[in-house]
Design brief:
Blueprint: H1 6-13, H2 17-24, H3 27-35, E1 42-46, E2 49-52, E3 57-60, H4 63-66, H5 75-87, H6 99-110, E4 117-121, H7 124-139, E5 143-147, H8 156-160, H9 165-168, E6 178-181, H10 186-193, E7 198-203, H11 218-229, E8 232-236, E9 260-263, E10 275-279, H12 281-287, H13 305-320, H14 323-344, E11 348-354, E12 357-362, H15 368-380, H16 384-397, E13 399-400, E14 402-403, E15 410-413, H17 421-440, H18 446-463
Parallel strand pairs: 3-13, 5-6, 5-7, 7-8, 8-9
Antiparallel strand pairs: 1-2, 2-3, 4-10, 9-10, 11-12, 12-15, 14-15
Helix pairs in contact: 2-3, 5-13, 6-13, 7-12, 10-11, 14-17, 15-18, 16-17, 16-18
Length: about 475
């Protein structure tokens, strides 16, 4: 009897994976993967690890851009999803309200002091879009202030408060009345707010692009300035929230309460798209102020039972396995490891982060051979030297990491909270070995440098 056989589809499709994407999807991404040697056939994932078709195990320090905080395929979340499907629930009735979304809102708000209401959506970018709309409507103001180098998403509202020109270029004009100020600059922020016409200041407590940490007084003073000038303080915790930094919200490190907090990524354990906006009651009630405005803003799949159950299960895992404390402790151990590595390798100039959100910044070394190599790559494209480290980390040590942003000499690590002490040693030894190899500029490194340089020059020629 014919039927749907997922395993058979996967087996038949796997050999054509890259060809399908070249022909039908993003062929440029396939080119990137092949250029840097990341074109693998992964067949499974568990916890912090991926496995390829040849049985090789990889340590994933990218974790789906921070989505897999509790690790891939956690059995508790899988079981919750299976229970939802088995229960034949009356999902997305729309002219109704669901039990699971109410329970998830209740659970989240207990973890977010000062906030009273919850709005669910389908992604972090959707959460940003909702926050911008709510802020403008609730305050009656139009202007939005955001930070340079921020990343808040790629939909038009989110893109309009995205501080990276690489994402904005060619998509102008952005939505009007959005202004950037430098991160960590309170004087610039006050100048932007002083006319009392700004609806919201949106900020990542720790900037994802670069893992830029705020000064100790920045976020408390930014919140005070917002109160002073009648501006809503909106914390984008899409990447920093859900325990990543060793607190449920990164804001807690500075004892700051926001008017709105945005969550997504790790909220569903990585299985179902979901986003959330926690906000003060008066903001919510001003937007949804009459029965005829009950559906003035929403998202079709925002409260699907699968997403809500996954969120509830994820919170249970975080609590039961004490993963926030584990992120704090393991992150402190990793930072200490990298500080020791920094003392041995001159090109590693800064180690920073909180919990399991870590940035490693590299700079031009003192030794002549490395200085020449650094400058050659840096002239072609800022941050290219870091890619030279990412490639052998993957090829020789099976460690997956990422450069922290366009033209940034920073490697960002976002490992799952469940990494073990064995994984920590794996990370430490892999980075130490790759940096030692680069320092000696042995022949094994030179081909990578040539490939990166050739790729950068080809990209420049095509762009011109």
């Amino acid at each position: 009897m014919p039927g749907f056989n997922l395993r058979e589809l996967l087996e038949r499709g796997a050999p054509r994976k890259f060809a399908l994407h070249e022909r039908l999807l993003n062929g440029q991404l396939v080119r990137v993967l092949r250029t840097i040697g990341f074109d693998r056939q992964y067949v499974s994932g568990q916890g912090a690890h991926l496995y390829d078709a040849d049985g090789n195990r990889y340590l994933d320090l990218l974790s789906g851009f921070g989505v897999f905080g509790i690790g891939r395929n956690h059995p508790t979340v899988k079981d919750a999803l299976a229970q939802v499907l088995a229960a034949d629930l009356p999902n997305l009735v729309q002219l109704d309200v669901s039990v699971l979304s109410g329970l998830l809102a209740e659970r989240l708000l207990k973890l977010m002091p000062g906030l009273d209401k919850m709005f669910f959506c389908s992604s972090g970018a959707e959460a940003v879009e909702a926050a911008l709309k709510f802020a403008r409507f609730a305050t009656g103001r139009q202007r939005i202030v955001y930070c340079e180098h921020a990343f808040h998403g790629l939909t038009y509202g989110a893109l309009s408060v995205n501080g990276d020109d690489e994402f904005r270029s060619g998509f102008e004009p952005m939505i009007p009345d959005c202004r950037a100020v430098p991160f960590n600059d309170l004087a610039a922020l006050e100048a932007a707010l002083a006319n009392r016409d700004v609806a919201a200041f949106i900020v990542e407590p720790i900037q994802g692009k670069g893992v830029n940490l705020p000064a100790d007084d920045y976020l408390p003073e930014a919140a005070r300035l917002c109160r002073k000038y009648g501006t809503l303080f909106v914390a984008d915790e899409v990447q920093t929230g859900m325990g990543r930094t060793g607190r449920f919200l990164a804001l807690e490190h500075w004892n700051v309460e926001a008017d709105m907090v945005l969550l997504a990524k790790a909220l569903s354990g990585g299985h179902v798209p979901v986003g959330a906006v926690g906000l003060k009651r008066w903001i919510f009630d001003r937007v949804f102020d009459r029965m005829d405005r009950a559906v003035v803003h929403g998202s079709t799949f925002s409260k699907t039972d699968l997403a809500m159950a996954a969120g509830l299960a994820t919170l249970s895992v975080i609590e039961d396995e004490r993963l926030i404390e584990r992120a704090r402790l393991r992150g402190a151990e990793l930072l200490a490891d990298f500080e020791e590595i920094q003392a041995r390798h001159e090109m590693l100039i800064d180690v920073r982060g909180k919990g399991l959100m870590i940035g490693l910044e590299f700079g031009c070394p003192d030794s002549l051979k490395m200085r020449i190599a650094w400058r050659m790559l840096d002239q072609l494209e800022k941050g290219l030297f870091c890619q030279m480290l990412i490639m052998p980390l993957f090829a020789r040590h099976r460690v997956i990491a990422q450069v922290a942003g366009h033209r940034m000499p920073v490697i960002k690590l976002l490992p799952p909270y469940v990494i073990s002490d064995e994984d920590r040693v794996w990370i430490r030894d892999a980075f130490d070995a790759v940096l030692a190899d680069c320092r000696s500029v042995r022949s094994s490194v030179l081909p990578m440098m040539r490939d990166l340089a050739a790729g950068a020059m080809l990209g420049r020629a095509k762009a011109g």
